[in-house]
C-alpha cells in the first residue's frame, strides 16, 4: 500500500486556556478529497494552519508522504508539496496576479526575476486546470472568484500535491462553486489530494470522498461520503439535530420599499442599470446572482452609502434616495452588511458599543451628547440573551466573538428596533449550519411581524428557503421577479447566467 | 521677473541642484525602502545625524573617505537595527520608536563627538570628496558642470536610485520586500519570513540614510556641527509620499526639492527686498502643492505601519 | 596670585562650535588657563530651559553667570533680579539692568568695515556678497558695516545677501556663497561658516568674521574681522573682584581701541595702496576721529 | 518566538517594568558618563536632585511638563482617530503667535477675566486651523496628512519668523526679533510665586480631564474612536467621517495651539522662533508612551520632563557634556515602550 499522502498524528493546540485542537488524528489518501466539517470555532482552520506550518502544534506530528514535517515552517510544508488556500485570502491587492504567484517561488537572491518564464508557466497551469486569469491584472481589480483562482494557482505553481482549501466557497455563488469543484475533481485525476473545509453540506456531499467532523477541537466522526446524509452530518457537527426553519405562507401587505428604474453610477461606471423592484410588508424578496454583478452597490444604495444617479427610491411612499445611514435607521430601515468584519462591527470595540453604533445619537442611548452607558449595556445584555449570542458579555471585545455570534449581534441590533424594512446582504456567509438556522429563524420572525425584507444572497438554498419572490442580478440589471413557487435551482441558475427570456420550465 | 526664470537655465543652478539633492536622495531612498517593506522610519533625522558624525569622525581619525562612508552606513544600519527590533518583532509603535531613535541618534552623536573630538576655535576639518573632473566631459557646456563635475557620492546616490528601482521592480527579493509592505501574511504563506524581510529592509534603508548624513560632512562640507542635518530627514519622509513610494520618482522628487532650494538661494539675490523667509518657505509650500497634485495617484503600501505579528488575529 | 580664580559659568544657547560662542568659549578657556577664572559651561540650551540653567548656576554658587539673553531678555533679567549677589553678563541687544545685569554687544563691525575697504579695492566685478544666518541686529550690523567699508573704496559697488535661516547649516551656507559668486560676486563676507568653502571652490575671495579663517582657507580668506572676548572678560572680572556693580554695558570692550576687535589680513594678497588707506582709517577709528556707523537694519 | 497578550497583568510587573526601563537607560548612560571621566553614581545623585530635589527643580519640572501635556493630548486625540498629526509643533507656534498678537493688539486693555479665556480660545483656533487644512485635504483629495503636517511645521516656523521680524516685531524689544508682548494683565498668573510654574498647568490638567470625558463619555468621542479603528464600519453605522475627522482635527490642533498659547501667556509673554524645543514632536512620544490615554499623557509628560530636567541639571553639576540629557531621555523612552509591552504581553515560544 502506498503511504498516505498526509497524516496528522494526535495534534493538540492550545491558545491559553482554550484547546483549539485536541489530539486530532487524520489521514488523507492520494487522490482523495476529504471534507472537514465543524461549527464555527471548532478548530478547522487551526488544524490546517498547523499542517501548513503557520502554527506549531503543542503536541503531535504531521507527516507528508510518510515523512515528518518540521513544525512551524510554511516553507517546509510548501517544499513537501502542501499548498493552502486560506480562509482569508493572502493576496496583495496592489500587486499583479503574476507578482502574487511568483513571490517566494524563486531564490530570493537571484539577480533578476524570470518573469517571462513564470508568465508562460502560469498561463500553462491556468489552461491545464481550467483556471483562467490575466497575469498582469491588479489583484484589487479582480472579483472574489478570480482571486480564489489566483490563490489556487499560487499553490499549483509551487507544485502542490496536497491542496488545502479553507472554506473556498464561502464567497462563491453556486455556479462558481460548482465549477471550482469540477476543477478540483480534475486535479485529483492528476494525482492531487485535497482537503477542503465547508459549511455547505450539499457541497460536502457532492464533492468529497470522505468527511471528517470536528466539534470543539475534537475529531468526533469520520464517514465515507456515500455512507452518510446531510442530516447526520449536521447532527454530528452540532451535537444535536438541526434543521433550517421553513417559511410559512403569509399574504404580503402593501409595498414598503420601491425602486423605480434606479441607476447608480460610481467612478464613471454604471453599477446599477435602471433596476426596479418592490418589497412588500411581510415579504422577503430574494436577489440572487453571481458575486460582482452589482450586489455590493445595491447594498450600499439601500444602506445610505450610495445615491441613485437617476430613478426613484421610496420608503413607505416617501423619497429615501438622499437619506444618510443614520436617517435611514431612524426611518426604520435595518441593515445587515455583507461583510461583518469590514462593515458590520468594529472588532476592537466592546459588544455594547457595537450594539448601539448605528443608533449612538438615539435618545435611548444618548443624552445631551453623552453616552447613556447603563442603558446601552442593558440593551446589549438583552440582545445577548434574546439572540443567543454565546461567549460574550456586554463588555467583551467584539473581536473575540466567533463569526456566527458576531452575525447574531448584528442581526440582533438590527431587528431589535423592529424595522419596517430590512436589507439582509449575505446574512449567513461563512456561518455553520446551527448559526444559519438561527439567522433564518430570526429573519422569518421579522417577516412574520410584517417587516419587508430584501435578501441578497449567492446561496440558492438560502434564497429558495427564505424568499417569497426572487429576482436575479446580472451585470447591474435586475430580472423580472418570479414567485418562489415557480423557482428551482435550475431556473435560478439560468436567470443568474442572464438567460431571462426562457419560458417557464413547467 | 524674467530674471527669475533665466536663472533656471544656468548650469550653476543645476549643478547646485545635484549637490543639494544628494543627501536627500540617499535619505529618501532609505526611507522608501523601509516603507516599501511596511515600516515607517521617523528615526531618519537621528540616523542622518549619526551618519554625518561617524562618517566624518572615521576620516578625522585617519580612515579614508570611502571608509568613512562605510562607517556611516554601518552606524545607520545599527540604529536601523534598533528601530527594526522594536517595531518588527515587538510590533511597537513605529512613530514612537522612530522619534525616539531620532532623539537618541542625534543626542548620542553630539555626545560622542564632544567626548572624542577636541574643538578649538573652529571644529577640525577633513579633506572632503572633491568634484570629479572627467577629461573631456567635464568641459562640455552646461552638461559638463552639471553632470560631470560632481563629487563621487553624488554618483553613488544616483546609482543607488537605479539599483533600488531595479531591485524592487525586477528581482525576487524586491518582490518579496514589496509584498511584505502590502501583505506580510501573504509573504509568510509563501514560505518567506516577513519579519526578516522587514528587519533587513529597515537596516539597509537606514544604512542609506547614514550615507545621506555622511555626505554633508564628507562632501558638502568638511566638519561636523551639531544640528547640521537641519530637518533634511523630515523632508525625505515627505518626499517618499510625494514619490508614491517609487524610487524613480523619489529621485525626481529630491531633485525637484533641491531645485526649489537652489533657485530660492539665487532668487534672494535676483529679487531683493522680499523677506527671506518667503523664499525659504517656498520649497515646503511647493512640496505640499505638488503633493496635492499627485495625491490621487499615490498608492500607499497597504501594510505600512501595520505591525505583523505571527499567528495573531 | 593672591585672589582665587573667579567661578564663572556660561550658558551657551548654541553648541560651542557656533563661531560667536566659540570666541567666548575660547576666551574663557584661556582666562581659566591663566588662573583668572574657573570656567564651567552648558551648551545647546533651549530658550525654554535657559532661565533654569541660569538659576541653577546662580544657586550653585557661580560668581559670574555669562550668557546670551537675546531670545530671553525679560526672563533673564528676572533671574538676575532674584540673585543680586551674582553677576550676570549677557550678550544682549538691550541695555543693562540693576546692579548685577551687565550686557555686551558684538562689535567687530569696525574690523568688518576695514575689511570692506580692502574688498572694495580688490574686487574685479564690483559685486559683493554676504551670507548670514538670520537677520538679527548682531548679524545685520556686521554686514552693513562691511558694506559701508566697501563703499568707501568702491562707491559703485552692488551687494547681495542671503540668509540661510539656520545657524548650523554649513552646506547650505556654501551653496549660498556659490549662488552669489555665480551671480557675479567675487568677494564674500562670511558671517556663517561655509561661505569661504563656496568661495574656495569657485576661486573667489572671502572675508571671515569673528574668527581667523585664513589658516583654514589659505588663498581664499584674505582678511578677518576678529572679535576678541578677552578684554571684556578682564573688565568684568576686575569689576567683580573689586566689588563694583556689574550692571553696566561692556560693549566698549569689543571695540578696536580696547583690543576687542581687530582686522587681520594677508598683506601679500591685498594691494598696498588699499592697505594704506585702510590703515589710515583704522588709526582714525582707534583715535575716535572716525566712528563706523552702526546700522542694525536687515540688509537688502 | 512570539508575543502573546497576557490574560491578566501581574501587578508587580506593571509596577516594576517602568522602573526597570529607566534603570536600563541609566545603565547605558552610565557607560557614557564614565567615559567622560565622571562617576555615574555622583552624576545620578545630581540628576535626582536636579529634577526633584528643590523647589526650583520641582516647579521647573512641572513647568516643562505643561506644554508637553497639551501637545501630548493633541497627539493622543488625533492618533486615536488615526489622524496622523505630526504637525503639533507648527500648531503650537500658530497658537502662540495668534495669542501674542491678540494679547497685544486686540484684547489689551479689556478685562482679564474675559481676555485670558479669549486668548486661550484664539490660540486653540489658530492651532485648529493649521490641522483642519491637512485633514480637509486628506478627506477631499487623499493627501497624506503625515507629510502635509510635517512640512507645515517648517513653513509655520518661517512664517513666525516673518511676522516677528516684520509686522509683529516688538519695537521696544532689545533688537532680537521677538513678537509684540502680551499685555501684562493678560498673562497667566504664577501657580507658585517666584517660579515659572503658572496656571497653564491647571489648564493642561483640565484639558486632560476634558479629553478623557469626551473620549470616554460622549457620543462624539465614541464615534471618533470608531472612525479611527474601522472607518468603513463607522461609515456604515452612519458616523460621518468628514465631520468626525474635522472635529478631531479641530480638537487636536486646538490642544497644540493651546500649548503655544499657555507657554506665551504663562512663561515668555511673547513669541520667538525658539519658543519650543520640539514640544510638538515630544508630544507624540508622550502620547504613545501613554497608550493615548489622557491620564497617561499627564503621567508620561511629567515623566519625560523629570528625566530631562534632571539630566540637564546633572550635566551642569558635573562636567558631562550637556547632550547627555537627551541621550538619557531618549534611551528611557525606548526602554519604556519595550517595558510597557512586556507588561501586557508575554513572550511565548
Ligand atoms: N491565534 C489565535 N489566538 C487565540 N485563539 C485562537 C486563535 N486562532 C483561533 N483561535 C480560537 O480557536 C478556536 C478555533 O478557531 P478556528 O479558526 O480554528 O475555527 P474554525 O473551525 O476554522 O471556525 P470557522 O468555521 O469560523 O472558520 C476558536 O475558538 C478561536 O477563537
Ligand atoms: N534595468 C533597470 N536598470 C535601472 N533602472 C531600471 C531598470 N528597470 C527599471 N528601472 C527603473 O525602475 C523604475 C521602476 O520602478 P518605479 O516604481 O520607481 O517606477 P515606475 O514603475 O516606472 O513608475 P511609473 O509608473 O511612473 O512609470 C523605472 O522608472 C525605471 O527607471
Ligand atoms: Mg476557519
Ligand atoms: Mg512601476
Automatic annotation (TrEMBL), chain A:
SMART domains: AAA (SM00382). PROSITE patterns: ABC_TRANSPORTER_1 (PS00211), ABC_TRANSPORTER_2 (PS50893). It comes from the Bacteria. Transmembrane segments: none annotated. The keyword Metal-binding does not apply. InterPro entries: AAA+_ATPase, ABC_carbohydrate_import_ATPase, ABC_transporter-like_ATP-bd, ABC_transporter-like_CS, P-loop_NTPase. One of its GO terms (molecular function) is ATP binding. Keywords: ATP-binding, Nucleotide-binding, Repeat, Sugar transport, Transport. CDD domains: ABC_Carb_Monos_I, ABC_Carb_Monos_II. Residues 6-241, 257-500 form the ABC transporter domain. This is ABC transporter ATP-binding protein.
TrEMBL record, chain B:
Pfam families: BPD_transp_2. It comes from the Bacteria. Keywords: Cell membrane, Membrane, Transmembrane, Transmembrane helix. The chain crosses the membrane at residues 12-32, 39-59, 65-84, 96-113, 155-177, 197-217, 274-295. It is found in: Cell membrane. The lineage of its organism: Bacteria, Pseudomonadati, Pseudomonadota, Alphaproteobacteria, Rhodobacterales. It comes from Rubellimicrobium aerolatum. InterPro entries: ABC_transp_permease. This is ABC transporter permease. Its main location: membrane. It is a multi-pass membrane protein.
UniProtKB/TrEMBL annotation, chain D:
It is a multi-pass membrane protein. Keywords: Cell membrane, Membrane, Transmembrane, Transmembrane helix. InterPro entries: ABC_transp_permease. It comes from the Bacteria. The keyword Transmembrane helix applies. It is found in: Cell membrane. Coiled coil: none annotated. This is ABC transporter permease. It comes from Rubellimicrobium aerolatum. The lineage of its organism: Bacteria, Pseudomonadati, Pseudomonadota, Alphaproteobacteria, Rhodobacterales.
Amino acid at each position: 500500500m502506498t503511504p498516505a499522502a498526509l497524516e496528522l498524528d494526535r495534534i493538540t493546540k492550545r491558545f491559553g486556556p482554550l484547546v483549539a485542537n485536541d489530539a486530532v488524528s487524520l489521514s488523507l489518501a492520494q487522490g482523495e478529497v476529504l471534507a472537514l466539517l465543524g461549527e464555527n470555532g471548532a478548530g478547522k482552520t487551526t488544524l490546517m494552519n498547523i499542517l501548513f506550518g503557520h502554527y506549531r502544534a503543542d503536541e503531535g506530528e504531521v507527516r507528508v508522504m510518510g515523512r515528518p514535517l518540521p513544525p512551524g515552517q510554511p516553507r517546509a510544508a510548501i517544499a513537501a508539496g502542501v499548498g493552502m488556500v486560506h480562509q482569508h485570502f493572502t493576496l496583495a491587492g496592489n500587486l499583479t496576479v503574476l507578482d502574487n504567484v511568483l513571490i517566494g517561488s524563486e531564490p530570493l537572491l537571484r539577480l533578476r526575476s524570470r518573469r517571462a518564464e513564470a508568465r508562460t508557466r502560469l498561463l500553462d497551469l491556468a489552461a491545464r486546470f481550467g483556471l483562467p486569469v490575466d497575469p498582469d491584472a491588479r489583484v484589487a481589480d479582480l472579483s472574489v472568484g478570480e482571486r480564489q483562482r489566483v490563490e489556487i494557482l499560487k499553490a499549483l505553481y509551487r507544485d502542490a500535491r496536497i491542496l488545502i482549501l479553507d472554506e473556498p466557497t464561502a464567497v462563491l455563488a453556486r455556479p462558481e462553486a460548482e465549477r471550482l469543484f469540477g476543477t478540483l475533481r480534475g486535479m485529483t485525476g492528476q494525482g492531487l489530494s485535497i482537503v477542503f473545509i465547508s459549511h455547505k453540506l450539499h457541497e460536502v456531499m457532492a464533492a468529497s470522498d470522505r468527511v471528517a467532523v470536528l466539534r470543539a477541537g475534537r475529531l468526533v466522526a469520520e464517514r465515507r461520503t456515500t455512507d452518510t446524509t446531510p442530516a447526520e452530518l449536521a447532527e454530528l457537527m452540532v451535537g444535536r439535530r438541526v434543521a433550517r426553519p421553513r417559511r410559512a405562507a403569509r399574504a404580503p401587505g402593501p409595498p414598503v420599499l420601491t425602486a423605480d428604474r434606479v441607476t447608480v453610477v460610481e467612478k464613471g461606471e454604471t453599477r446599477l442599470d435602471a433596476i426596479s423592484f418592490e418589497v412588500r410588508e411581510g415579504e422577503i424578496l430574494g436577489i440572487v446572482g453571481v458575486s460582482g454583478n452589482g450586489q455590493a452597490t445595491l447594498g450600499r444604495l439601500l444602506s445610505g452609502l450610495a445615491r441613485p444617479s437617476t430613478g426613484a427610491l421610496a420608503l413607505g411612499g416617501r423619497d429615501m434616495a438622499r437619506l444618510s445611514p443614520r436617517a435611514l435607521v431612524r426611518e426604520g430601515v435595518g441593515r445587515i452588511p455583507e461583510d461583518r468584519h469590514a462593515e458590520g462591527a468594529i472588532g476592537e470595540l466592546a459588544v455594547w458599543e457595537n450594539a448601539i453604533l448605528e443608533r449612538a445619537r438615539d435618545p435611548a442611548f444618548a443624552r445631551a451628547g453623552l453616552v447613556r452607558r447603563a442603558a446601552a449595556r442593558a440593551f446589549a445584555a438583552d440582545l445577548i440573551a434574546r439572540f443567543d449570542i454565546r461567549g460574550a458579555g456586554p463588555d467583551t471585545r467584539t473581536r473575540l466573538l466567533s463569526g456566527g455570534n458576531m452575525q447574531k449581534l448584528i442581526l440582533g441590533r438590527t431587528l431589535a428596533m423592529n424595522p419596517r424594512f430590512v436589507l439582509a446582504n449575505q446574512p449567513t456567509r461563512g456561518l455553520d449550519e446551527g448559526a444559519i438556522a438561527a439567522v433564518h429563524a430570526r429573519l422569518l420572525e421579522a417577516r412574520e411581524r410584517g417587516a419587508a425584507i430584501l435578501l441578497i444572497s449567492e446561496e440558492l438554498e438560502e434564497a429558495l428557503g427564505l424568499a417569497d419572490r426572487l429576482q436575479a442580478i446580472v451585470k447591474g440589471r435586475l430580472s423580472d421577479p418570479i414567485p418562489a413557487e415557480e423557482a428551482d435551482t435550475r431556473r435560478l441558475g439560468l436567470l443568474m447566467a442572464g438567460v431571462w427570456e426562457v419560458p417557464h420550465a413547467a | 521677473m524674467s530674471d527669475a526664470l533665466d536663472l533656471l537655465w544656468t548650469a550653476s543652478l543645476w549643478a547646485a541642484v545635484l549637490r543639494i539633492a544628494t543627501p536627500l536622495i540617499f535619505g529618501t531612498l532609505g526611507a522608501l525602502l523601509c516603507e516599501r517593506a511596511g515600516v515607517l522610519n521617523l528615526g531618519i533625522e537621528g540616523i542622518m545625524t549619526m551618519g554625518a558624525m561617524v562618517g566624518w569622525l572615521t576620516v578625522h581619525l585617519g580612515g579614508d573617505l570611502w571608509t568613512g562612508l562605510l562607517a556611516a552606513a554601518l552606524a545607520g544600519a545599527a540604529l536601523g537595527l534598533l528601530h527594526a527590533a522594536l517595531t518588527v518583532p515587538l510590533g511597537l509603535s513605529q512613530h514612537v520608536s522612530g522619534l525616539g531613535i531620532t532623539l537618541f541618534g542625534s543626542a548620542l552623536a553630539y555626545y560622542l563627538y564632544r567626548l572624542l573630538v577636541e574643538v578649538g576655535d573652529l571644529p577640525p576639518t577633513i579633506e572632503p570628496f572633491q568634484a570629479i573632473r572627467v577629461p573631456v566631459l567635464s568641459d562640455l557646456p552646461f552638461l559638463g558642470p552639471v553632470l560631470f563635475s560632481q563629487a563621487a557620492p553624488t554618483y553613488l546616490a544616483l546609482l543607488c536610485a537605479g539599483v533600488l528601482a531595479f531591485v524592487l521592480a525586477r528581482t525576487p527579493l524586491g518582490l518579496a520586500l514589496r509584498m511584505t509592505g502590502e501583505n506580510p501574511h501573504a509573504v509568510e504563506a509563501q514560505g518567506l519570513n516577513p519579519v526578516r524581510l522587514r528587519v533587513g529592509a529597515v537596516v539597509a534603508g537606514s544604512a542609506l540614510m547614514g550615507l545621506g548624513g555622511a555626505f554633508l560632512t564628507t562632501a558638502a562640507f568638511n566638519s561636523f556641527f551639531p544640528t547640521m542635518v537641519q530637518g533634511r530627514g523630515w523632508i525625505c519622509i515627505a518626499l517618499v509620499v510625494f514619490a508614491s513610494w517609487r524610487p524613480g520618482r523619489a529621485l525626481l522628487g529630491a531633485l525637484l526639492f533641491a531645485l526649489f532650494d537652489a533657485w530660492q538661494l539665487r532668487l534672494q539675490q535676483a529679487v531683493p527686498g522680499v523677506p527671506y523667509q518667503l523664499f525659504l518657505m517656498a520649497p515646503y509650500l511647493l512640496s505640499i502643492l505638488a503633493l496635492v497634485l499627485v495625491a490621487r495617484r499615490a498608492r500607499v503600501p497597504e501594510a505600512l505601519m501595520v505591525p505583523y505579528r505571527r499567528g495573531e488575529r | 596670585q593672591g585672589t582665587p580664580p573667579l567661578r564663572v559659568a556660561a550658558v551657551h544657547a548654541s553648541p560651542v562650535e557656533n563661531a560667536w560662542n566659540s570666541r567666548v568659549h575660547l576666551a574663557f578657556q584661556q582666562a581659566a588657563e591663566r588662573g583668572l577664572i574657573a570656567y564651567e559651561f552648558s551648551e545647546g540650551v533651549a530658550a525654554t530651559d535657559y532661565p533654569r540653567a541660569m538659576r541653577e548656576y546662580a544657586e550653585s554658587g557661580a560668581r559670574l553667570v555669562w550668557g546670551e539673553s537675546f531670545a530671553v531678555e525679560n526672563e533673564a533679567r528676572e533671574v538676575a533680579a532674584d540673585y543680586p549677589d551674582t553677576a550676570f553678563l549677557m550678550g544682549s541687544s538691550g541695555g543693562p539692568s540693576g546692579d548685577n545685569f551687565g550686557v555686551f554687544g558684538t562689535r567687530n563691525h569696525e574690523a568688518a568695515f576695514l575689511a570692506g575697504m580692502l574688498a572694495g579695492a580688490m574686487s574685479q566685478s564690483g559685486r559683493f556678497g554676504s551670507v548670514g544666518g538670520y537677520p538679527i541686529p548682531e548679524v545685520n550690523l556686521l554686514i552693513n558695516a562691511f558694506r559701508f567699508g566697501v563703499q568707501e573704496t568702491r562707491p559703485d559697488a552692488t551687494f547681495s545677501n542671503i540668509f540661510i535661516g539656520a545657524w548650523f547649516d554649513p552646506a547650505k551656507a556654501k551653496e549660498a556663497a556659490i549662488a552669489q559668486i555665480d551671480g557675479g560676486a567675487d568677494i564674500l563676507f562670511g558671517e556663517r561658516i561655509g561661505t569661504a568653502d563656496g568661495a574656495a571652490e569657485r576661486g573667489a575671495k572671502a572675508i571671515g568674521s569673528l574668527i581667523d579663517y585664513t589658516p583654514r582657507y589659505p588663498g581664499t580668506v584674505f582678511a578677518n574681522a576678529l572679535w576678541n572676548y578677552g578684554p571684556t572678560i578682564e573688565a568684568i572680572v576686575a569689576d567683580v573682584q573689586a566689588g563694583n556693580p556689574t550692571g553696566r554695558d561692556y560693549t566698549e570692550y569689543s571695540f578696536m581701541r580696547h583690543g576687542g576687535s581687530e582686522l587681520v589680513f594677508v598683506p601679500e594678497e591685498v594691494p598696498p595702496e588699499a592697505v594704506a588707506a585702510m590703515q589710515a582709517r583704522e588709526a582714525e577709528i582707534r583715535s575716535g576721529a572716525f566712528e563706523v556707523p552702526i546700522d542694525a537694519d536687515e540688509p537688502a | 518566538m512570539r508575543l502573546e497578550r497576557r490574560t491578566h497583568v501581574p501587578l508587580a510587573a506593571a509596577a516594576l517594568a517602568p522602573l526597570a526601563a529607566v534603570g536600563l537607560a541609566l545603565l547605558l548612560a552610565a557607560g557614557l558618563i564614565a567615559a567622560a571621566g565622571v562617576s555615574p553614581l555622583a552624576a545620578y545623585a545630581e540628576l535626582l536632585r536636579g529634577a526633584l530635589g528643590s523647589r526650583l527643580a520641582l516647579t521647573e519640572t512641572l513647568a516643562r511638563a505643561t506644554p508637553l501635556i497639551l501637545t501630548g493630548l493633541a497627539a493622543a486625540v488625533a492618533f486615536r482617530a488615526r489622524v496622523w498629526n505630526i504637525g503639533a509643533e507648527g500648531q503650537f507656534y500658530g497658537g502662540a503667535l495668534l495669542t501674542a498678537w491678540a494679547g497685544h493688539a486686540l484684547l489689551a486693555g479689556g478685562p482679564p477675566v474675559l481676555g485670558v479665556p479669549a486668548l486661550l480660545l484664539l490660540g486653540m483656533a489658530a492651532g485648529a486651523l493649521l490641522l483642519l487644512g491637512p485633514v480637509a485635504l486628506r478627506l477631499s483629495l487623499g493627501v497624506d496628512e503625515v507629510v502635509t503636517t510635517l512640512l507645515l511645521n517648517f513653513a509655520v516656523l518661517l512664517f513666525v519668523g516673518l511676522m516677528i521680524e516684520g509686522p509683529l516685531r516688538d519695537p521696544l524689544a532689545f533688537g532680537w526679533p521677538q513678537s509684540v508682548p502680551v499685555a501684562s494683565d493678560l498673562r497667566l498668573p504664577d501657580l507658585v510665586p517666584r517660579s515659572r510654574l503658572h496656571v497653564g498647568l491647571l489648564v493642561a490638567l483640565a484639558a486632560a480631564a476634558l479629553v478623557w470625558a469626551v473620549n470616554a463619555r460622549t457620543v462624539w468621542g465614541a464615534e471618533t474612536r470608531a472612525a479611527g479603528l474601522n472607518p468603513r464600519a463607522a461609515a456604515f453605522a452612519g458616523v460621518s467621517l468628514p465631520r468626525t475627522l474635522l472635529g478631531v482635527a479641530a480638537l487636536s490642533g486646538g490642544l497644540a495651539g493651546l500649548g503655544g498659547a499657555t507657554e506665551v501667556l504663562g512663561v515668555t509673554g511673547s513669541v520667538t522662533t525658539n519658543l519650543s524645543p520640539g514640544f510638538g514632536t515630544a508630544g507624540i512620544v508622550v502620547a504613545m508612551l501613554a497608550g493615548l490615554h489622557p491620564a497617561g499623557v499627564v503621567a508620561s509628560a511629567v515623566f519625560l520632563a523629570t528625566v530631562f530636567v534632571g539630566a540637564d541639571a546633572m550635566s551642569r553639576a558635573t562636567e558631562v557634556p550637556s547632550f547627555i540629557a537627551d541621550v538619557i531621555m531618549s534611551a528611557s523612552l525606548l526602554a519604556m515602550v519595550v517595558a510597557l509591552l512586556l507588561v501586557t504581553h508575554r513572550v511565548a515560544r
